[in-house]
Design brief:
seven-stranded mixed sheet, 5 helices, alpha/beta, Glutaredoxin, about 35% helix, 7 strands, about 160 residues
Length: about 160
């Protein structure tokens, strides 16, 4: 079952692009999080989305927010993707698709392409906004910034 707005963020541990263990509990509850699931490194839509998050990363940091990208690619593939596109945020390798399933990220109609969904998590670990669009990769950034601004304004 998919998590919904108002649910607690699932806890998980995955390898990052440096092949280092990453525990979501190390950041959960400390800052607002943008966790985005995407289909695959180095595909046109996913590259555009990652580069858009990169280009807006300072805006997210200024809002006290971390950005985390998750796909089923390996840490090694993430490292090449991050280096090639100068990505300064964390990429996590969900090679078993366990975390994708915990969040309930849907695939496309035939299940051939993993979904593209962004979750905004507040400082209490609660899902505050979900944006699901496989085709509008750039929309994820605009939706995320607006949601983070709303959350940070409420917390101020």
């Amino acid at each position: 079952m998919a998590i919904a707005v108002g649910d607690k963020c699932p806890t998980f541990k995955l390898k990052d692009q440096n092949n280092t263990d990453f525990d979501i509990q190390s950041v959960l509850g400390k800052k607002v999080l943008v966790i985005y699931f995407y289909p695959k490194d180095d595909t046109p839509g996913c590259t555009a989305e990652a580069c858009s998050f990169r280009d807006s990363y300072e805006d997210f940091k200024d809002l006290g927010c971390d950005v985390i990208g998750i796909s089923s690619d390996s840490p090694e593939k993430h490292a090449k993707f991050a280096e090639k596109h100068r990505l300064s945020f964390t990429l996590l390798a969900d090679t078993s698709k366990t975390v994708r399933k915990e969040f309930g990220v849907p695939g496309n109609l035939f299940g051939l392409i993993p979904g593209r969904v962004t979750y905004i998590i507040d400082k209490k670990g609660i899902v505050r906004h979900i944006y699901n669009s496989l085709t509008n990769a750039a929309g994820h950034i605009e939706e995320s910034i607006n949601a983070v601004k709303t959350i940070t304004n409420e917390e101020a």
